[in-house]
Amino acid sequence: MLLVCVVCHVFMLVLCLSADEDFDWTKNEHSSFYYGTFPTGFSWGAGSSAYQTEGAWDKDGKGLSIWDVFSHKNGKIQQNETGDSSCEGYYKVKDDISLMKELKLNHYRFSISWPRLIPTGIKSEHINEKGIQYYDQLIDHLLENKITPIVTLYHWDLPQVLQEKYGGWQNISMVNYFNEFANLCFEKFGNRIKYWITFNNPWSVAVEGYETGDHAPGLKLKGTGAYRAAHHIIKAHAKVWHTYDTQWRGKQKGLVGISLLGDWGEPVDINNQKDIEAAERYVQFYLGWFATPIFHGDYPQVMKDFIGRKSVQQGLGTSRLPTFSSQEKSYIKGTCDFLGIGHFTTRYITQKNNPSGRSSNSYFIDRDLAELVDPRWPDPGSEWLYSVPWGFRRLLNFVKTQYGNPMIYVTENGVSEKMLCTELCDDWRIQYYKDYINEMLKAIKDGVNVKGYTAWSLLDKFEWDEGYSERFGLYYVDFRNKNKPRYPKASVQFYKRIISSNGFPNQREVRETKQTTKTKSVSFFISLFLLEEQRSTAANILRLIHDPLTSHMEMVTEIVVPTVCTLSILLSAIFLMFLLRRRN
Length: 584
Ligand code: NOJ
What we know:
Radius of gyration: 27 Å
Bound molecules: 1-deoxynojirimycin
Structural class: alpha/beta
Number of helices: 20
CATH architecture of the largest domain: Alpha-Beta Barrel
Low-confidence stretches: 1-21, 517-560
Largest sheet: 8 strands, parallel, barrel
């Protein structure tokens, strides 16, 4: 009898918990696979950027960008490769759209090359009609094929003239030049574009462009260059948002956001306050650097404190982190209709006190932390890219709590493979997508407002300072062949299946929906009598049956457990009736 009751309890609990799994994203628990589908209307896409795929670097009146110049300098890019021809995307609009159709994409994210439209970057000097025609036909073909374009205005290819004349993003004049370029795009394409992204990953522009010098324009202005560039980028973003808001939104009814890259930082020791603070600092110096001004009007307090203190210790009169006036703060605050999130990986973070002498001027030193990785994390491709799916769910929950649950589009997520790998059987990529998309699904279940997902990237392409040595594509591109043919990798079929079923549906789930009304009320009643330990036993059982590796167990639990339980309930009822009768 006792055994029957325990079985009944556990069974009901499993049903009860499957309807309401608790999750505290601040705790270091890594849960298992979750079956389910995405909300109706969830948008599935893939992405690219102009310099990484277009090629045609000097064709049809295009001006030079800082990447054209940087990649032509000796020793800047692996094997001295350039994006001169890359995937020849400029000539393959129809071919590439047929690949998107094959995948059944809902949206395609691409960027507009500023110097292709305005060769010197200065609108009053010259507008390149051929450039406008190119993007016109790209947008039109996408729409004809029912693929929504999501357009990035700045994916790192600043017109070279603006770099040479003014010092690029070190100079405040970029704000107006960029605003004029954006305004031209709204005027020419805004009747058909409803999603605009001002900047892609400004963290990289600032840190890799002006601090480490690994990216164009290759400047090493340690401890100041990145902060200054970021300051101007944030102002430029806000200005463009206001331009759209006041001049175009009424007619065009689109949205303007920004795409921020954020790795997740997990404390090495979750019981150590110093590690917890260091991990928070890591995320604030990364995503928060840009998101906090845009959502709250100013830089994260922790950045102001740390950079301010280090600057004083270095004998400087003011902080190396620039400040916003109160007018600027209110102008910048709230300039985001949706937030684009690019996410690839995670780090363990621990506190580390860095020296603060004049010679140790740097963004990295300012953070006072050390980054670690778990050697067991898979790292199939880029050196920095470890697959840590649970970090994605944490990052998304962080965005929800810090910035008032904004509308999110995941604008980049994916994994690369190593140089000499020409395999189309990219099973590690399938695993990466499966796990990361699953964590995104869990985040949505946590209440995070994610509306769309962009696999990065549609094609193999020029991977910045790594040249063509790191391939992120769903489609393999043969760069040695002049025609740059594309071949689907195995992940194409996998992603296609996710798109067509809108996630990870499970037959059990379909049946459960039918039973929900019946079981919920019963399980709620029974759960009132259960102890916390029993809840965790049931939760473990629940995890087990959600694990794909034990899916055969699922079959057993689906058939055996319900049958046994129904029989047990019947038997208990008969037994009770029998007892009562005997008493009478
Ligand atoms: C972020 C960049 O925006 C994108 O261009 C690049 O391909 C990915 N990181 C992978 O490195």
